[in-house]
Amino acid sequence: MARKELITKDKILETAFELARTEGIESVTARKLAAQIGCSTQPIFRVYANMNELCTEIYEKAIDAFGDYYESFRSEVDTPFIHLGLAYINYAKEEKRLFQLLFQSENRGERSLYELLNGKSGAVNKEINRAVAAGCQNPSGLFMKMWIFIYGCACMVLTGDYDLTEEETVDLLSDIFKSCS
Known about the structure:
Structural class: mainly alpha
Distance between the termini: 69 Å
Strand content: under 5%
Number of helices: 10
Shape: elongated
Helix content: 55-70%
Radius of gyration: 19 Å
Number of domains: 2
Largest sheet: none
């Protein structure tokens, strides 16, 4: 009878993802990962040809994690783009390392920030459709103006310079929406 593998691909990926989530992707090394799992580096390299392959899977898992976060994020705001903005800003607060990996990394696998933000949930497309339904004449232009503000807010969160309340953030985003619709 064949010996059962104790260190599975799922275990390696989940542990690597948690390392990236708590300490940053740069902390995901074969030695550190092996120490976290409690094994040598051999099982890691039996499953993954190299660390770049593992990091690619971590990145894909991070994209899914943001999509899940956006889908489960709750707000009471009906104005287009504001729910997305609040979710994005709060994601930067709650998942700093994953936010940096996804939205501030140069290595995005040929994806634009728009593609990452839209993700599997179609978040941006949903918001653009809501803006059209609300009478917005230029929803793509509106998205760009709101996106610059939202992205700036999220970056300020990471540096500790963002001290607006959710209500103040909603008010500012509402003002941008009203000025462009």
